[in-house]
Amino acid sequence: MEDQVAESSYSKSYQWYVMVILALVVLPFLQQTMWKAHMKPISDESRLVNLYLMTGVLFINILLVIKVVRALDKREIAS
Questions:
Q1: Quick one: which of 9, 38, 65, 77 has the fewest CB in 10 Å?
Q2: From first to last of its 79 residues, what are the pLDDT tens digits of the chain?
């Protein structure tokens, strides 16, 4: 029983590390890449799609940061 609890807490902490890495490294890089693609002279449809993608990435980024901050607050309260 204790092994299952330890394993589940380990997998949860691993998931949070992956989310932090996504929020801090991968998504801003993706956002920067989309911004560079947005600055090139392209058709209006492609520009609109890039704008929607950038907005979506920014929204996901904000949600992940909020989730990570809440998780860190819960850990501080629990310890």
A1: 77
A2: 455 555 556 566 677 777 777 777 777 777 777 666 666 666 667 777 777 887 888 888 888 888 888 888 887 777 6
The CA-based angle 76-77-79, given to 5 degrees, is 65
Give CA–CA dist 8/10, Å, rounded.
Answer: 5
The residue written with tokens 């989309």 in the block is 34
Domain ranges of the chain: 2-78
pTM of the model: 0.43
Q: Residue 60 contacts by C-beta under 8 Å, 6 or more apart in sequence?
A: 27
Phi, psi of 43 (to 5 degrees): -70, 160
Say how many C-beta atoms besides its own lie within 10 A of residue 52's C-beta.
Answer: 10
Calpha distance 33→50 (Å, rounded) = 10
